[in-house]
Amino acid sequence: MSNMERSENRHRETDDILARKPGTEAVTDLADRYRVVGAADRGTYANWLTPLEEHYVCHRNETLDPAAEDWTVELGGAVERDADLEMAAIREEYPTVAVAHTMECAGNGRGYFEPETGSVQWEYGAVSTAFWTGTPLRSILADHGAATDDDMWLTAVGGDRPEVDGENDRFARSIPMGKVLEDCILAYEVNGEPLPPEHGHPVRLLVPGWYGVNSVKWVTELRVTETMVHGEEWTDRDGEDYTQWQQSSYRIHPEGVDPESNATVSTFDTWDQLESAGIDHPYTFDQNVKSTIGAPEDGATVSSEDGPIAVVGVAWAGDDAVTSVEVSTDGGEDWAEAERFGPDYDCAWRLFRYDWEPAPGSYTLVSRATDERGRRQPVRIAGPTEDADDAYPWNEGGYAENACLPHAVAVTVE
């Protein structure tokens, strides 16, 4: 298949997804070759639970839709008993849990970078919160005698493959064992429904609080290893490269840099990696603290005649808790504390509300969140060669953006 044919197939596939998801819209890369779907408007972020009709969708290859009864997950590596796990066994022979998770694409906010970076030009719409139901991986690993020391890793491989002739990469992500045992699941339902094909039917890895790239869809293999996917064992495994999406893509680095492959890293917190002198090009694991306003909509005209105007939105911080949300109505000059309310789950966003009593005029609304470690959203995105305080670093992939000003909302009050 050629790149042109792949692009045409992706457009047709996206059209089908949009028909099933009326609350989404298409988002593309700069060349309009690669299409995904994200929230159609900010109203999604005025509510805690994201309906599937509004949940963003992003993956690299064509969507799979296999029969669940024919699907197996190979378990191997540092385990006492290899296994081919059938879906019936995954669902019925182990405990079942439901996990609340705010899933965010690592490229969410890429469209705000200047100069522009490649790939999909996401603005705010690639983040959603849902309940995911499945089997705790710790139960499966314990049942098969897996080595689960903290320095071990679990690699998940997706069943999807590139469609273009000459491409040989497989979608694989390695997750540190401590995180796996803490809360990772093999998910087969979302919001009480079987996984739709575009969300990974019949089974996907779910890594709560981490960027969506880690939650591998259509899982066909789980392998317990001493390192991440790294080295010749993984770069040429039966003629296929399993390292691309761990070691090259989804890394935070300046333009023109080829990130060095690592066997392991000392911290999995993305912000900590950014601040670490020992990690040159961070991996996108745990989500950075972030927030977005859901109401009023950008460009809205609102009236204050009926009382205070509610500024409502969501804030999240990956594995960490959100401890403060502030709102500015003057473009970030002055800030006031917002109320956090609603459901409070680990690894899921919190709703916030600020009751605002403005005079008529034009305003720029901004939100910023702070996590439990005192880390607050930076103000803006830095330029490619700029090293600035309170600015998120520009990077070639446009990953892990969490500056507050790019997400501002312009409002007119009558």
TrEMBL record:
Residues 284-379 form the Moybdenum cofactor oxidoreductase dimerisation domain. Its cofactor is Mo-molybdopterin. Residues 1-20 are annotated as: Disordered. InterPro entries: Ig_E-set (IPR014756), MoCF_OxRdtse_dimer (IPR005066), Mopterin_OxRdtase_euk (IPR008335), OxRdtase_Mopterin-bd_dom (IPR000572), OxRdtase_Mopterin-bd_sf (IPR036374). Residues 67-228 form the Oxidoreductase molybdopterin-binding domain. GO terms for biological process: sulfur compound metabolic process. SUPFAM superfamilies: E set domains, Oxidoreductase molybdopterin-binding domain. GO terms for molecular function: heme binding; molybdenum ion binding; molybdopterin cofactor binding; sulfite oxidase activity. Keywords: Metal-binding, Molybdenum, Oxidoreductase. The keyword Metal-binding applies. It holds the Pfam family Mo-co_dimer. This is Sulfite oxidase. The lineage of its organism: Archaea, Methanobacteriati, Methanobacteriota, Stenosarchaea group, Halobacteria.
